[in-house]
Every structure is written in structure tokens, then in C-alpha cells.
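Before the break, one more example. Copy the sequence into your notebook; we will annotate it together after we see the structure.
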Amino acid sequence: MRARVRHAPTLLVALQQTCRWAPCEDTILQLWLEPSGENLKICSKLIGTEGISHLEISQWLQNIFVLHIVRQFAGANWSPKVIAFEAPYTPSPEVRSHWPNTRFLSGQKASWIEVPVKLLSLANPSNDFRPAPSDHEPQSFGKDVVSALRLSLPSYLDQGGLTITQAAEMMGVSTRSLQRRLSLAGLTYSGLVEQARFNNAAKLLGATEIKIIDVALSSGYADPAHFTRAFRRISGCTPREFRVRSRNGQAAIDQRASLPNDNRA
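Here is what the structure looks like once it is written out:
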């Protein structure tokens, strides 16, 4: 999503891209644009949160998230005329003192900030502006996909991991496009998963007393024997040996030549 905003030619396009890609970042987050006279409302809502207390905290983050994007085009000192909250929330006098030119509303159908329509045509001030990436130009977006996958994959290991189809859906691209982008970066999806599993296992072995069988399961290995073989192939030692070395301050890993290039990156 950062890449899409960075490559947007105008503020309007950046906001449209934000609305499209935000659910990939947070699956319960909805963002949309609503015309309002000479202004445009950038609305946000968290699905399934009705009745939860202190939602104003999340709604502050939702509004500040959008505000940050607008400021990339309108300048760091820009502030909205209106900040609205879905929650029945009234900012304290101290909070309002930081927003002297902003009106606060509460109990709205969604959280939103208001942006004058005249600002929507503001050009992207980025010096390295390029056209928005597409499936036909995967190299301009490949690094962002790889970085996002490396951040995301560890969270799904204990559930058996993500299939490449699930990962592609989460990244907002087709499976074929994801494979092509990884290939351009000299990587494979299976290699990224294997590296994520190894990194998770090495962290648990070195920093916790968790049983090795539980380390295997939390790293996405259903079979402890398979875990031991895979770990030895990458590190050159068994999980138990690695734990002993790490306890002795010798956790530097000499990855064997048999490890695929995309795993040694």
C-alpha cells in the first residue's frame, strides 16, 4: 500500500489506492470516499466492533493514518477542518489545544476527516515519482511484496502457514503475478516460507526453554523429524545442538552450500 501511495500522481489517486488496499493490511478495516459539498470525506470503519468500549483509540489511529497520507501532498502542517468519530467521544481540552483550527464531531456513522476538493489535484512531491506499478511492471513493486511477505509469514506458521494462493490474495495480486515478482527478485515462495520457519525456530531455540517438539509445531512443521532434517540442512547442526551453541554464545550459523540461494539471502 505504501508503494501505491508513493507512486500516485495526485492526492486523489493516493486516497483511492488507500481505500482499495487498506483491507489487505487489516481485513476488518473499511475505507471509502464521500463527496460533501466543497469537501471530500475520507471515511473509515472497523467491521464487527459495535459495542466495544474505547473505540475512539482505534478511530484516532484510523483518522491519523489518513491524515498522514494527505500531509504527504499538502504539507506537514496541514490539519483538517473536521475530525469525526464513530464513538461517543469528546476530546479533552488538552487534546483540542493541539488542533486549534479543527472541529470535532462524535457519534457519527463512521470516523472521517474532511479534505477540501481543491487539494485533490495536488501533485505527488516525491522526487522519485514513477507511474503506479501494475502486474505488467512487477519489478517496480517486487521489493515491497517480498518485504511484506517476510513480515507477514511468521504470523501464520503455527497454523500450518499460508499457501501461495492465500499469500497472493493477501498481497492483492494474482498467484502468477506473485510468482513472477518473486522470480525477478531471485526468490521462490517455498524458499521464503522455509526461511521464515527457520528464523522462527532459531529464535525460539536460542531465547526460550520451549520443548523442541513444540518449537517444531510453532514453526509450521507437523513432523519433528522433518523439522530436524530441515533445520540441519540450513544451519549445519540439529536443533538441540543449536540450542547448546546459543547458550554458549556460539550461535553464528554457517549455512551450508546446499541451502538454495533464496534461503541464504
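DSSP finds twelve helices and five strands in the chain. The first strand starts at residue 29 and ends at 36. Try to locate both features in your own notes.
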